Amino acid sequence: xxxxxxxxxxxxxRRGPKPETVxxxxxxxxxxxxxxxxxxxxxxxxxxxVLVFLEHHKIPIARLGIQEATYRSPTLQEAxxxxxxxxxxxxxxxxxxxxxxxxxxxxxVRKDYYPSGNSLPNN
Length: 123
Known about the structure:
Layout: H1 44-56, E1 59-61, E2 70-72, H2 76-83, H3 87-95, H4 97-101, H5 108-113
């Protein structure tokens, strides 16, 4: 009798570099451009741009009589004004920063939109 055996399951690692955290990403001039029109849904890259802006951008604090510059991080309202995204939406992104940082076809960010795990909806 011939017995049929199943091949072992693959346990290989994912290809490519590991995703960078928000603190490791660089803020570029392109990321500082305000969005020309407000949207209701936002891509993962737009969310990351706003999170990187909040993490890395510094605003100078001008004080009378003090020559050396001091800096502060932008507030959620200032990020909302720059990117024309509601402040509450940005607040939710800050709370979910770890989930948004995950990049790839198996990320939980995409599974929220498409429960079947597909990257595109079935038409």
